[in-house]
Amino acid sequence: MTDRVHPTSKPNGTGTTVRNPKLPPPPAKTQINNLNRHPYRPNLPNYQRKRRSGLRRCFCLCCFWSVLVIILVLLLAGIAGCVLYLLYHPQPPTFSVTSLKISQFNLTTASDDTTRLTSKLNLTISTKNPNNKIVFYYDPIAITCLSEETQIATGTFGNSFTSSPNNITIIRSAISSTSLLLETETVDRMRSDLKKKSGLPLKILLDTQATMKIESIKSKKVGIRIKCEGIHSLIPKKGGVKSNSSSSSVAVATVSDAKCEVDLRIKIWKWTF
Length: 273
Hints:
It is a single chain. The protein is an alpha+beta fold. The protein is built from 2 helices and 14 strands. The protein has helices at residues 46-88, 184-194, and strands at 94-109, 115-129, 134-138, 141-147, 150-157, 161-163, 167-182, 200-214, 217-218, 222-233, 251-252, 259-265, 267-268, 271-272. The strands form 3 sheets. Strands 3, 4, 5, 6, 8, 9, 10 and 12 form an 8-stranded antiparallel beta sheet that branches. Strand 13 and strand 14 (271-272) form a beta hairpin.
């Protein structure tokens, strides 16, 4: 019979037994930032907290009082303006064109087809002060004559003058231009207008500065622009219709439909309104 070999449960004497096996270290824990957690803020000492709150309180008080002072100043200015208006009823001065005469208007065309203008005009303007207790003081006046935004003559009324209450002041000035170069389109338009019955449309601009005085109160100088439109005029006979032509006669402009507007020109730093 064949012998069976039964395995034994006893360990082989020649084998080695490990009593304290070394395990691998656990994996390092990854730190996950909590986005919902508030950032760390160190606690400030009491004196720093009081200092910050005091500065914030001072800033708020300064803003409050500044706004309050501005409102009070505007309120007082409005009250003063209402009182002055009720007492004196101030009205702006009025201007009107009394007459405009053209003594010379020559369009000269050179051999290079350039056209130049030489003109002489005599202008009379009246200004009225409709107030009872207000005086206007005017600086010298710069005068410009235009035709469809094209300058045809300039001049000045070089004297300062005073416009007394309920008074009319007459201003007379001679304005002119010498060899003023014109564009071809402007020359064609002028010659076309001169063939019309009404003649050439003209506009007068007056630029000056004025001061207003009420009793003993005197304002600062304010820029004034007076714009007068609705003027039409022919030119002296043969003046400007043909090249190299001139005339010694005088053409009187039609000023019955002329209207003048007075605009204040307030200058703040570099801008003029």
